[in-house]
Specification:
The complex is a heterodimer of chains A (270) and B (325). Chain A is of the alpha+beta class and 270 residues long. Chain A is elongated and about 100 Å long. Chain B is mostly helical and 325 residues long. In chain B, the strands form 2 sheets. A 3-stranded antiparallel beta sheet of chain B has the order 1-2-3. A 3-stranded antiparallel beta sheet of chain B has the order 5-4-6. The chains are: A alpha+beta (270), B mainly alpha (325).
Chain lengths: 270, 325
């Protein structure tokens, strides 16, 4: 009898140990997954999302983290977040300073590729995107504000970012370093703005793909003369209502650090 | 029907039940009785095992399975890296030759968190559901999931260490997986975030292979360390909600591993190699309810038991088709 009691005691403690280590393992799994809340709630990384991205909370809910948007982007602007983004691990974002979205796909390939609608299928054209709003963060550094021109490779010889230059190759983006500039007054942010380029094409009667729906209704950026009383040629970039936050102005700005940054808090209500 | 209920209950974590004498068909009862008294058979078992200890037969199916698993994952990688565009995306969601595919568990998480279902996701989910229903549900685990392969290698290491008594397996309660599945479903719905995707080793590994490694791999490494040093195959056995989702899909699948009682010698070799040995409870002497028994829903159709069984008592079978032929 005593022997049976000891045996059942042993079984009991074995079962209890199994229960406890199961609990510890399960709690760790759930705990680690819930730690993903911290970067999201604390907004550690405010990300510039691809065109069509829903508001941040809905975007994180709906993105299935497959990277199909990454695969179709012709300028490889889209990257997937790491575990530091918590629940946002595996979600796509754009580091505009390294490689902006220049809409060289014209048809919003990332939106078409998205299987869940995290990039909403309700937009068809670049000017309908609402990724962010550009902000002139460091106007003092701006070459135009200083009345200076720009000569050479916009971001230096080591920069790997690409842009599509219609006059060079209608279909394929090329490295920015292969397309040096020679400007009396630096206007790169306006000159390379995908919205401004489309407006110019439309005004010339040549909308992209001959489709007038491609024509943006509003300007996105312009250079305004600075009244400095010297009658000089100083200008400053001003962001307009047509800005979609693609980040090309941030990428192309030749000074370090860049003058313009993308602010995704305004447009997508992050 | 009761067999299906048992199979799903065991999938949820219930221990297999010893069948009551009435549950066993008369022909099976006859074989059980015969086997208990068959000295010649018992002697044969001894010879068989001694022979097998000396000459380990190659695991052919395992080699084929590893090749398939690597090929599928490589196809993802090459589709992107070489721009072949045959299988775009990652294991969470993809397009095969243009057709949408969505991992069922990832899609479930998104549906619960987002509370809208886009037609593309519905198409992808249905396609994958039909595919894995036909192919056996958890077949996904052992034939496609990249974590499964790493876990198999970790398991080999674990068994080597265990043989030298350097480590010991600490089993967990199998019901934990059901609880975690429910918890992650509730969390997705309540928080509006795809909480499980944050730690899904399948998603993390698939993306790491295709888009390049990241710090998230540290989590995968931690899971593997637990399996090497503490608990054999812990993630796949006791935790992974993906496995449970596919297990449910495969519960009624026509693709089965089937057990044949008459040819079985009850050595138990199959249970030693099995990821989910509770599904092989039926091979224990006296447990089989019939002369042929389909293995339950938690079976990953990995085929290791088929490879290992010296008497060929475990075989793959495609129900319906095989019956017709």
């Amino acid at each position: 009898m005593a022997k049976g009691g000891a045996r059942s005691q042993h079984m009991l403690s074995r079962a209890r140990r199994r229960f406890l280590r199961t609990l510890a393992y399960g709690a760790t799994v759930v705990g680690v997954s819930l730690a993903g809340f911290v970067p999201v709630l604390a907004r550690w990384n405010r990300r510039l999302r691809p065109p069509g991205a829903l508001k941040e909370d809905e975007f994180l809910a709906s993105c299935i983290k497959c990277g199909q948007c990454v695969q179709v982007c012709p300028v490889e602007a889209i990257r997937l977040a790491d575990i530091g983004d918590g629940f946002g691990v595996g979600t796509p974002h754009i580091d505009a300073r390294d490689q902006a979205c220049d809409f060289s796909c014209d048809g919003l390939q990332c939106v078409l590729a998205c299987p869940t609608g995290a990039l909403t299928h309700e937009i068809d054209y670049p000017h309908q995107a609402d990724m962010a709003v550009a902000r002139v963060a460091r106007p003092a550094g701006c070459l135009a504000v200083q009345g200076k021109g720009f000569h050479g490779q916009a971001r230096g010889p080591a920069f790997e970012g690409k842009l599509r230059y219609n006059e060079v190759d209608r279909w394929n983006p090329i490295p920015v370093r292969d397309h040096p500039y020679d400007l009396e007054l630096c206007d790169l942010c306006v000159r390379q703005c995908p919205i401004e380029i489309r407006i110019a094409q439309c005004e010339a009667g040549k909308p992209p793909s001959g489709d007038r729906n491609q024509c943006p209704p509003q300007h996105a950026i312009e250079l305004r003369p600075l009244d400095d009383g010297e009658g000089g040629r100083r200008m400053q970039p001003v962001i307009l209502d047509g800005c979609v936050g693609c980040g090309v102005c941030e990428m192309i700005c030749p000074v370090e650090p860049g003058v313009i940054v993308m602010d995704s808090s305004e447009s997508r209500g992050v | 029907m009761s067999r299906l209920i048992d199979s799903v209950a065991e999938l949820f974590g219930r221990d297999p039940r010893r069948p009551a004498p009435d549950d066993i068909t008369p022909p099976a009862r006859e074989v059980h009785a015969r086997q208990r008294n068959d000295r010649e058979r018992i002697e044969n078992i001894r010879i068989e095992l001694a022979h097998k200890a000396k000459h380990k037969p190659p695991e052919k199916l395992r080699r084929i399975r590893w090749l398939v698993l690597l090929a599928v994952n490589l196809l993802f990688v090459l589709s992107y890296r070489l721009d072949i565009q045959l299988l775009e995306g990652a294991l969470t969601a993809s397009r095969f030759a243009g057709f949408h595919m969505a991992d069922l568990n990832s899609a479930l998480q998104v549906m619960l968190a987002f509370k809208h279902v886009l037609i593309n996701l519905l198409i992808g989910t249905t396609t994958v559901f039909v595919l894995w229903w036909l192919l056996g549900g958890r077949t996904f685990c052992s034939w496609v999931c990249p974590y499964h392969l790493l876990a198999e290698w970790a398991e080999m290491l674990h068994l080597k260490l265990a043989a030298r008594r350097l480590v010991k397996d600490h089993p967990f309660d199998r019901r934990a997986r059901t609880l975690l599945w429910l918890l992650f479903a509730v969390l997705a719905f309540a928080t509006g975030y795809t909480v499980f995707e944050t730690i899904s080793p399948t998603g993390i590994l698939s993306r790491a292979l295709i888009y390049g490694p990241g710090v998230a791999l540290a989590w995968v490494g931690a899971l593997l360390l637990v399996e090497i040093f503490y608990s054999r195959r812990a993630w796949c056995r006791y935790a992974c909600p993906i496995g449970l989702t596919y297990g449910l899909v495969g519960a009624t699948s026509p693709l089965r591993v089937t057990y044949n009682l008459e040819s079985c010698f009850h050595e138990g070799e199959c249970r030693k190699v099995c990821l989910v040995p509770h599904v092989l409870d039926t091979v224990i002497k006296g447990r089989a309810r019939d002369l042929n028994v389909d293995i339950g829903a938690d079976c990953t159709r990995c085929g290791r038991c088929v490879d290992t069984c010296p008497t060929g008592s475990l075989t793959f079978r495609f129900k319906g088709l095989g019956d017709l032929l």
